[in-house]
């Protein structure tokens, strides 16, 4: 029962972390809202699927260490429980880091874009809701050093 509770706590913490970390062009960070951004027009020359590696903030490891330490300390007598508690904490930290990294991994796309002035840019971002393809007119939106690519709106004369 204690093992199930420990796993449930760890899974909940990692799921919470995964919800916080994304590089999706459809998600704008709170600090970037209501800020003026620069916009550049371009055309997608090519794109290829990539995997954006998951993060290791240390929270998954810390949560795993706590859960593993608590679970291990309940084993055996006082001397054994201390040793097993340390082993449980180390194993829990390793497992927590691995779970955090795999749960924050994202499917992404690397875009090669030609700007109107002839310059080229390569940008990696998570897959968003738009279906981007080679030849699409796009805008590159830069806010506070972060960049996202989205389809260009139709030109109105």
From TrEMBL:
A Pfam family of this chain: Rick_17kDa_Anti
Keywords, sorted A to Z: Signal
Location of the Glycine zipper 2TM domain: 59-100
Signal peptide residues on this chain, from the entry's feature table: 1-21
Record carries keyword Signal: yes
Keyword Protein transport among record annotations: no
Source taxon at top rank: Bacteria
Protein name: Glycine zipper 2TM domain-containing protein
Organism: Ideonella azotifigens
């Amino acid at each position: 029962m204690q093992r199930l509770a420990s796993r449930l706590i760890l899974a909940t913490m990692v799921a919470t972390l995964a919800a916080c970390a994304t590089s999706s062009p459809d998600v704008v960070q709170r600090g970037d809202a209501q800020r003026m951004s620069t916009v550049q027009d371009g055309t997608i020359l090519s794109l290829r699927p990539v995997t954006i590696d998951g993060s290791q903030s240390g929270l998954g490891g810390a949560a795993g260490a706590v859960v593993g330490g608590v679970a291990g300390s309940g084993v055996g007598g006082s001397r054994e429980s201390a040793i097993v508690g340390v082993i449980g904490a180390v194993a829990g930290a390793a497992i927590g880091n691995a779970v955090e990294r795999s749960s924050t991994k994202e499917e992404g796309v690397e875009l090669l874009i030609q700007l109107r002035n002839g310059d080229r840019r390569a940008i990696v971002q998570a897959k968003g809701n738009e279906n981007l393809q080679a030849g699409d007119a796009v805008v590159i939106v830069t806010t506070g050093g972060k960049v996202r690519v989205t389809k260009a709106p139709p030109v109105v004369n």
